[in-house]
Amino acid sequence: MPSSQTETPSSTPTQQSVPSQMRRIVLTGFMGAGKSTIGRLLAARLGWKFLDLDAHLENRTGATISELFARHGETHFRRLESTALASALARSSTVLALGGGTPEEFTNRLLIEQTPATFAVFLDAPFPTLFDRCMLQEIARPVLSDPAAAEQRFTLRRPHYLRLANLTIDTSDLTPEETVETLLNALNHTPYSPR
Ligand code: S3P
User: d(Cα 109, Cα 105) in Å, to the nearest integer?
Assistant: First the structure.
């Protein structure tokens, strides 16, 4: 069963704001980077909505990511992912957690770069750290079934994550809460020129 795609904004006493021209924050990074966990926490701190691209795609298709890979193959999955991304980027006041492979596609990078008022954050960590984190989670990830191939994908994708990012955070030694603090601090101290 697909999971729920969006969560309603929740206000906290320590609600933060971001520069007014910023209308969505996109979280990128490899599997295990913490995109969904950090996205949810960040959205709550901003009083914004949170959208997980995989969950959004599962809801649009009525199938889980694993089912989509198994039934139709990765190429078809990537096509669906691009369409889901285009619709997700139309939302405002939203923190959007991408799938780990989303920035590998040229079209997706263009979509993210060319959608105005969009701020991209790369959650970085070395491959062994990411792999260990994934092993502790009970999430079915078809792309991780071959660890050596997954490491090659990581090496291929990292330059794309870096180039796409307005901000990169090394999450290796940070808890999700510390990552959100670092991110909020950087958002309010980094000059932001809207695209
Ligand atoms: C993938 C990452 C997954 C999901 C799919 C493919 C990838 O998302 O989109 O299994 O190619 O890295 P997470 O990064 O949220 O696990």
Answer: 6
